[in-house]
Amino acid sequence: MLTEIIDKFYLEQQKSREQNHFYITDVGKCPRAVFFKFKNVPREKMDARILRIFERGESMHMNIINTLIRLGIVVAAEIKIPAQEIISGRADVILSLNNELYVLDIKSMNSMIFRNLTEPKPENLQQVQLYLHYFKIKKGILLYIDKDQQNIKEFVFNYDSKLVKSLLDDFQKLKTKIDSDTIPPKLLDWSENWQCRYCQFKDICSEVGEGDLHWNGFKNKLES
Ligand code: SF4
Question: Which structural domains are found in the chain, ordered by start?
Answer without folding.
Answer: 2-207 (3.90.320.10)
